[in-house]
Please model this.
Amino acid sequence: MAEKFNVDDIATFKDDKMTVNITHDSPNFRQLLFCFKPGQELPVHSHDVDSEIIMAIMDGEGIVIEEENEVPVRKGDILIGQVSVPHGIVAKTEMKVLVTITPPL
Amino acid sequence: MAEKFNVDDIATFKDDKMTVNITHDSPNFRQLLFCFKPGQELPVHSHDVDSEIIMAIMDGEGIVIEEENEVPVRKGDILIGQVSVPHGIVAKTEMKVLVTITPPL
Model:
């Protein structure tokens, strides 16, 4: 395929905060790999556009926050929603989350 | 999120051929979970549209065929390409592949 990577190979972790790697950015979608150490978080936020977001939990476990809901998530979970709905992530263990936004922001 | 599933929970395998579960279908993207037993395959094919395809190898290992190229793939690999380019999959072990096509076919 035009692009190929392994999430374990490109995952990077920092002591002070989660990391973000942009893995793809085209007119069709933007994709990012978020890596968290235990306790790190993606603060709750939203984007005022009509795009959909896919969160693929590639490793670890944590909580996905959507509005007032706290949803426990674990490796293999796929979550799909609207980027206009406030959402965030809190890692319980080391976590790798592949996020795809389509159409891109 | 609006939708949540775990690939391990919805994975189904059949003795005679690979299985396909449609996990999402919206104006933005179509998503399918392909499950293979060892030796099963998705025959090489293409679609004459301008969409992009993401193959996320959620479990197992095998070969992704793109035109004349045979690309070994394993758990954690993400492959991104054009659906107009002939592509297929051959499973070496039991395999779960989450495929996202955007925009949908």
